[in-house]
Amino acid sequence: MVNNTYNKINQKRNIELINLNDVFKKKISFTDEQIKSYFENYKSKYIETYKSIKLLELSPKKLVGSDEFNNLFFERIDEIDDITIQGKDFDFITQKYNLEKGKSFTFDKSGEEINSKIISDLPKNLIKDILNFNDNQPTILIEKANRYFIIELTKTKSIQKGFEDKTVKKDILLNLEKETKRKLISEIISKINKNNFNKSDFNKLSKDENVPIQKINLRSQNDNKIIKKELVNQIYAFPEKRVIVVNDISLAENFLIYIDKIKNVTIDKNSEKYQKYLNLSKLKIASELYSTYDKLIKKKYKIDINYQTLNTVKNYFN
Hints:
By secondary structure, the chain is of the alpha+beta class. It is 45% helix and 20% strand.
């Protein structure tokens, strides 16, 4: 039991690897018509909401003529907070306390203006709060990291971006690329599952596409020096002499793998790591028992879940 757990994690694997991205890049090219067609199908995805605000940072110097955060400053802050709750606007507050007019910004969720220019003097950690503004209370006081801001939402408007927009075009190209990769990967996996893609096909793909085969020795399931752990875990789920496809969730990394050789390992009972793998084995058995029991119960009984009560309990602990 312990040896099985130890071996699963620490066995050595000799693999051969083809970087599928090198294969795909020769097949990934999109015309303006394809880009425009994608845009028309997903037009609503590219509607951007912009918030127009007036903002003023309330420093002790501006508010009470002092360089220190003294009691008078915090009294003024409390007064301003009360005034905003009463519904008074930005101009009323700046006039009452003889403050400057503040700055005006119009930006999207990423803190960019309509022309995609980054607003450098708008504190980034304020953007999320401002985007969640309640229109019923357009003027509020916000404290962030011991900095105080009076902010007024003056307008919210949605703008349909065109497919010529740089950010839109970039997003469309990324999505079209993912779709193409997904299709090509599915074709290879389908052949593998039907036993129509073996080691000779693996070698032929390398030759036909002029993409080299890398030979890699994985020392354990935690060996992520060449391939990231997410992909190594996938490799360790398959047996020897198999061709498989591994990729990350974003399809940024895609590899065709041939598992050439597996060298099994054992652990000595006197090893200092023995207890660690004994505990892992016990946890695995417990997990499998619970899973089996859960399946049995679900098969035997119909279980109705009161989701309203479940959400109430979840919210209580959040």
